[in-house]
Amino acid sequence: MKRVDVTYVLIFDEQDENVLMVKNKGKNASYYTLPGGAVEPGETLEEAAIREVKEETGLDVEISDGFSVSEAFFEERGHHAIFFTFRGKITGGEINISLPEEIEEITWMNSEKAEDYIHITDTKGLIKSKASVPYLLRKKVIQKS
């Protein structure tokens, strides 16, 4: 199986009530997720998370800390996916669907409803908790050819 790293960003509105969600176009049906996507070669997790939010929503964000790490096996695709979810804060930009072939909607969703789409845990209320894990980039090594 091929390993695929995916980053997501958990972003609350100014009132800390609603979570920014995107509705992705799927093969058989559309589905909601946090903004995010696959890490590209040479990117750090943080760089990928910031890039994906910008691509999917038009918003600039900064990452504050890690929220969760989870994994799943997608046998039909031959992928072993590791999901890194970060907490983030909007620093600029405007909501805009720049990838209409991938994203059909960007919405602020009540945090309790958003938990139904964020497949992190079966424990309700986790996204409103202040628990976090630090994200540490130990060192980005660039090899010379």
Entry keywords:
single chain; 145 residues; mainly beta; Nucleoside Triphosphate Pyrophosphohydrolase; four-stranded mixed beta sheet; three-stranded antiparallel beta sheet; 2 helices; 43% strand; globular
Describe the structure.
This protein is mainly β. It has one domain: Alpha-Beta Complex (Nucleoside Triphosphate Pyrophosphohydrolase). The protein is built from 2 helices and 7 strands, in the order E-E-E-E-H-E-E-E-H. A 4-stranded mixed beta sheet has the order 4-1-6-5, with helices on one face. Strands 3-2-7 form a 3-stranded antiparallel beta sheet. Strand 5 (about 60-75) and strand 6 (about 80-95) form a beta hairpin. The longest helix has 13 residues, at about 45-55. The mean pLDDT is about 85.
